[in-house]
Design goal:
The structure is a single chain. With about 400 residues, this protein is an alpha/beta fold. It has a nine-stranded mixed beta sheet, sandwiched between helices. α4 crosses α5, α7 crosses α11 and α10 runs antiparallel to α11. It is globular, with a radius of gyration of 24 Å. Bound molecules: S-adenosylmethionine (SAM).
Length: about 400
């Protein structure tokens, strides 16, 4: 039991020591906790029910975050006595999940994960293990005959499939922001096993179309220990009518941009005490339109942040995209102090990385202080003296006396 806890504990804070998305071998080495000393590693450990974390990138693109996570997980498994070959199979089967709205992106991510597994296990392609990376399908396209054959008059299967079909209607409009109902997934997989050797005209359609549909529904419904992503950016004016209506109804506090919607959605995807690591625009930290979202997010612990500002990506010129990468944990520890790296001054990717690794411009801030400043900005660099001033009764008295002066009509 102790080992179980230790392993969960060791793999969870993948990003606890570092900025959300480190790069290079150095950060690989330091961005997870090693198991505590004194644990004897030997073959017998592998027979214990060791539970490693389950991770997802819900907007995986071509899967480069997944491949990075793969490399980190290999090191965690190796620390627990696994060979890289055994670890690779287990990671693909049990730990890594990815979703994208775009079919071509999902194909690239599939290829990238397979090749990463092949890097650690030369025989991986022959093992018949398929990565859990999926393009989000929509139920509108399902073949009704294959569906009837699959359900086979079983009311439990009927109920589960009806629920998923309702939830995933027009799913390509919404992608991973869809909150799918948990249904009896094991019962559905048992039926897929049953039909695998069946002789029926609709068997192939059921296995080729319904199985990925159910796998993707599972990916959207289940909870993860860690969600890591670089979500899409899309202002409300760029959203189509269906997406816009869905976001207004389900994500009221973040509706003005899809990246902010994903901040809320990633929080829904994690377990209690789970982690969400993201790189997003930094607008949510300051703008009044995100004040309610800030209130929601900061009810959980902001573990760390690399505040990147403009020019974090050399390929995106100018000041257009200002970003921040951060890790939130679904917990609320009283008086929690997060670590913040202010990297907005360097004007290149390399300059920011150098400053981060040199440990310069670091701040340790108690996030409960943010709400003492009007509008609750994530002002981690503000000194205690300034916070005290905002917190003083005189400021309250003064601000309550503000009123409208001379005006014209
Ligand atoms: C900025 S890219 C990030 C890709 C990847 N996470 C990375 O860092 O390389 C955003 C990805 O989100 C995908 N995407 C856009 N809208 C989506 C949605 N609603 N659900 C899931 N994926 C979406 C895009 O197809 C694109 O691949």
């Amino acid at each position: 039991m102790t080992i179980l806890t230790t392993v969960r504990g060791s793999a969870s804070p993948l990003f606890a020591n570092q900025g959300a998305l480190g790069c290079g071998d150095e950060s690989l080495r330091i961005c997870y906790f090693k198991p505590s000393r004194g644990i004897v590693l030997h073959e017998a450990m592998k027979r214990l029910c060791i539970q490693f974390d389950v991770l997802i990138d819900p907007c995986m693109g071509s899967g480069h975050i997944l491949c990075y996570l793969f490399d980190v997980l290999i090191k965690v498994y190796e620390d627990y006595g696994y060979s890289a070959r055994d670890a690779a199979s287990s990671i693909v089967e049990n730990n890594l999940w990815g979703l994208d709205i775009d079919e071509r992106a999902a194909q690239l991510a599939y290829f990238a994960v397979m090749m990463t597994a092949r890097k650690y296990d030369r025989r991986f392609f022959r093992r018949g293990i398929q990565p859990h990376v999926y393009a989000i399908p929509e139920s509108n396209e399902l073949n009704p005959d294959a569906l009837a054959y699959f359900i086979n008059g079983n009311p439990k299967l009927q109920e589960a499939m009806d629920t998923l079909i309702t939830d995933l209607h027009d799913a390509k409009e919404y992608g991973s922001i869809l909150n799918v109902t948990q249904v009896d997934i094991p019962a559905l997989y048992a039926r897929f096993d049953e039909i695998r050797n069946d002789v029926n005209l609709w068997r192939d359609a059921a296995l080729n179309q319904l199985l990925p549909f159910v796998q993707c529904a599972q990916a959207l419904a289940q909870k993860y220990h860690v969600v890591v992503t670089n979500p899409p950016y899309m202002g409300s004016s760029g959203m189509g009518p269906k997406l816009s209506a869905y976001v207004k109804k389900n994500y009221k506090d973040s509706k003005s941009d899809l990246f902010a919607v994903f901040m809320e959605r990633c929080g829904e995807m994690i377990t209690d005490d789970g982690y969400q690591a993201m790189i997003t625009q930094h607008a949510w930290m300051f703008l009044s339109s995100f004040e309610k979202l800030r209130g929601k997010l900061l009810s959980h612990d902001l573990i760390n942040m690399a505040h990147l500002g403009a020019r974090a990506f050399d390929e995106i010129g100018g000041e257009v995209v200002q970003t921040t990468s951060f890790v939130l944990r679904k917990s609320s520890v009283e008086g929690y102090k997060g670590t913040y790296c202010r990297l907005i001054e360097p004007t290149s990717q390399q300059g920011k990385e150098d400053m981060f690794l040199a440990g310069e411009n670091r701040y340790v801030a108690d996030q409960s202080n943010f709400s003492k400043i009007p509008g609750s900005p994530v002002a981690y660099w503000v000194s205690d003296a300034v916070i005290k001033t905002f917190d003083s009764p005189q400021i309250m008295d003064y601000s309550s006396k503000v009123c409208k002066g001379v005006f014209t009509v």
